[in-house]
Amino acid sequence: MDYTLVLLISVFHVLSVGTGAPLEGGSVESEQIKQKVEKYANLLIARIVRLNLNYQNTSHETLEPSIKELEGPSSIVTVLKGYNDLISDSLEGVTQIKTELYILTNSTDEWSQQHCKQPTKSSEPELLKKLQKLKRFTHTVGTKALMRVKEYLSLLRRNLDLLDIC
């Protein structure tokens, strides 16, 4: 992956977001991050679906994440970073997905740092840990990670209010 592109997008993102202090009450900022997360979630889900990976879940393991994995911004950041790291650059058509997932993760992390007085460190879900142990099978793990991201973002999209929990 061309890291210059990721770095350039990150710089543009930081410049567009600004560095102002959070507003009193935070309700405007809260709505903005929810809208941004929803927008990126919809975009990423559509891109993943368009990849048409024809993933066959032969392990009979559920791809549907648990609501417990959404314990606020810090857990969302941990999960999205973890899965993004597992998605192989060798999979065709994932560069844009990885870049947008990176932007979504960083936006959520910035929100967490500004909104939460003491952001908690979140542990990784068991399914993510299992995939990390199998990282050497890049194509299979990358494909499964993409499917998990899609399901995770669908769950997040339905529970945007969890972004307000620190």
Automatic annotation (TrEMBL):
GO terms for cellular component: extracellular region. Residues 1-20 form the signal peptide. InterPro entries: 4_helix_cytokine-like_core (IPR009079), Leptin (IPR000065). GO terms for molecular function: hormone activity. The keyword Amino-acid biosynthesis does not apply. Keywords: Signal. Pfam families: Leptin. This is Leptin-like. It comes from Kryptolebias marmoratus. The lineage of its organism: Eukaryota, Metazoa, Chordata, Craniata, Vertebrata.
